[in-house]
Amino acid sequence: MRKISLVFLIVFFVTNSGSHLGAQMTISGIFDSTVSVNAGAGDSPGFSYGIEEFANIRFQTRIRERGRILGAVNLYAVAGDYAAAARANNPSGFIDAENYVAWIELERLHFRVNFEAADFDGGLMRIPFGFGQVWRPTDFLNPRNPLKPDARPRAVLGSTLAWYPGDEFKMLAFCAAPRNPYSQDGGGGLAGLAIDRHWGRASIQTLYSFEAPMRGSMQGIHRFGFSLKADVKVGFVVDALYVYNHENGTGLDGLSFSAGFDYSFFRGKLIVLAEYLYNGSASSTARGEGNIFGFSNEHYLYTGVTWRFSDFTNANIALVSGLSDISFTPMLGFNHELFQGATLMILAQVPIDRDLISGNGKRGELGPLPPDKLQPLLQEDGQRFGSYFFCTVRLRLRF
Predict the structure, then answer these.
(1) Strand, helix or coil at 354?
(2) pLDDT tens profile 349-374
(3) Fewer CB atoms inside 10 A, N or C side of the chain?
């Protein structure tokens, strides 16, 4: 309860300090009401459900003419599958009530100071990189997963200094605290530089970062990356990041590389998107410490088609393919704007692998029941958890 009260105290302070700082508070956000159903594989229940009430409340206040304070708080009340997952993750301020569990999470809290040709940000915030629409290896601080398209990118505690020496040209110096918040010697902290250049039909970004060595280590970790997008009738994108760790002898396994395209037909009604990912075992998109959305094999392909019925309704079909172990996750989505600020969203997933089709025991990473080595919830008694079918129905309200 003390942690929850602290979050409310922060919001209360920022909200009520506006009049003293000559500022005006603005509040916005989203509210999601979600119901899910799951057909379990392995030791998961044959049928299970989940209910989640979620609100992301964002606040912003100005400090005179050049400064701003920005923040966001997540509120959760869940039952069923969502409650079981929450109990396993043990979020801060967890409240176990009679028929639901609830908690509050501080998502963003940072300040921004604007100068004539520069901006300085510091605090708990996003430091995003790259132009990729699906994989985006250069976004190494908060890797994404196309299997969880609604997952909100996590923030990091850090700072950035952006300098704009010319039109469509930006240089960004950044630093972030170690992933282990209890690190006191700076081991695992990182700093780097990114350069963005934009033209009429193309953009490029390059970046470099150095991660300080951990205690007992003599070498740090270097990251070199670039991202390119071009719009020449077909939209192309290339995104790559190489992680070099001299102590571990990193080779090609430190490379994460993605490339793809998108194209629209029938005056934008039909949109086709495809992106390939090469995922080195020691790269930014690999499964490992600090990457909750990591992948374990080398070759992946995302293909998707979206049909826009109108400005208010669209449907999409996508297939995430694990080419190394022949496993797939088809996804079907539907979005309809009920009225301004209210959207109905449906997403269904059906994991498939060779074992599901032929029963030959060759389970794949994207299949109903991943191999034992990839079971994050594998228990001491050998229980295995998976899913044959998963569907969410969500009502999203914006305010």
Answers:
(1) helix
(2) 999 999 888 888 889 999 998 887 66
(3) N
CB distance 277 to 259 below 8 Å: no
DSSP letter (8 states) at residue 92: T
Burial 48-73 (b: 16+ CB within 10 A, else e): bebbbbbbbbebbbbbeeeebbbbbb
Give the angle 332-57-16 at the CA atoms, nearest 5°.
175
Please, are residues 331 and 352 in contact by the beta-carbon 8 Å criterion?
A: no
Closest CA to 287 of 147, 157, 155: 147
Distance CA 61, CA 68 (A): 6
Cα dist from 265 to 55, 74, 151, 268, whole Å: 36, 38, 29, 5
Instruction: Name the nearest CA neighbour of 398 among 345, 347, 346.
Output: 345
Per-residue model confidence (pLDDT) at position 378:
43
Report the C-alpha gap between 388 and 46 in whole angstroms.
9
167-to-127, 152, 281, 321 alpha-carbon distances in Å = 21, 31, 39, 40
Q: Do residues 42 and 385 touch, judged by C-beta distance below 8 A?
A: yes
- Assigned token pair, 152: 């909100």
Rounded to an integer, what is the distance from CA 370 to the centroid of its chain?
A: 22
